[in-house]
Amino acid sequence: MDALAGLLDGPRARGAFLLRMVMEPPWSVRIEDRAPLCLMSVTAGEAWIVPAAGAEPVLLRPGDRAVARGPEPYTVADLPDTEPRARIGPGGTCTTLHGEPLSQSMDLGVRTWGNAPDGSTTVLVGTYLLDGEISGRLLDALPPLLVLPSGGRPGPLPALLDDEIARDEPGQSVVLDRLLDLLLIDALRTWFSRPGAEAPAWYRALGDPVVGQALRLLQNEPAHPWTVAALAGRTGVSRAGLARRFTELVGEPPMAYLTGWRLAVAADLLRETDATVEAVAHQVGYSQAFAFSTAFKRVRGISPQDYRKGSGLP
Question: Which of 60, 124, 193, 248 makes an SS bond possible with 42, Cβ 3.0 to 4.6 Å?
């Protein structure tokens, strides 16, 4: 498992919010759902994304993709200065700016929503409703708005999602979740590989023959009783050499990275499985539940039990 795949493996889309938005100008939708991540792809017409905090609006044309990182609000519209006429709140609720419900009046069919059935603009929208602890490093590495122009050569994935999104068949939600994951992985891989992209240190470090191998070992085997010496032995370098190069490229020592990774994996296990705290501790490399709970609370500010209950960070 490489680092990018590892970061995406835990918070895979599960019952994600997906729809085809069909609009005829003038139109403008204010997004205030506080979702951690949203993907958009224009398949017809044009759409402007207007970020918060006075950032410059960005134009999307057919084939272009955008990744918006929450929880800051933003607006999607036919023109940057069109006043919002609808608001998307948490959980995908749709209302006017005064709180009047719009979901039924703008319902155009299965996972299709808008102000005109034959509108000139179509935007595919896929939203991850819940943030995952493993994705924390990834989300921290992303700008508030990431745009990938197609250059007139749209890839096959948006077209496949467009074909599947309005189907109403058994298991369709699972199909759409996996398509959304593929779209996200493809978008991030494309962005990270572009010249001048500010890819995170852990991603750049994957290209190093030694540190890249060490990262994969730690991510693939978090329960292994790793030491810097053991990791150096597996990568064929000296202990001091590995520690120095790992810290230089990744930004933190190997064991600090391992602790963060173990607790991130544990956070997902606590939220998405019924495994006991002790079982989770063993799965991520802690021999005792007490030691795991102490480390978890020190780093997360909350006990594993309270985290599982959903009480959130203090």
Answer: 60
In 3D, which of 178, 140, 134, 137 has the Cα closest to residue 269? 134
Q: Write the pLDDT tens digit of every residue in 232-281.
A: 999 999 999 999 999 999 889 999 999 988 998 898 888 778 999 999 99
DSSP class of residue 236 equals T
Say if CB 105 and CB 3 are below 8 A apart.
Answer: no
Instruction: Give the integer Cα–Cα distance in Å for 296 and 281.
Output: 10
Q: What is the pLDDT of residues 195-217, one digit of tens each?
A: 766 677 777 787 789 999 999 89
Say if CB 115 and CB 26 are below 8 A apart: no
CA–CA separation, 202 and 3 (whole Å): 8
CA–CA separation, 280 and 286 (whole Å):
9
List the helix and strand counts (H, then E) for the chain.
12, 13
Strands (E), 154-258: none
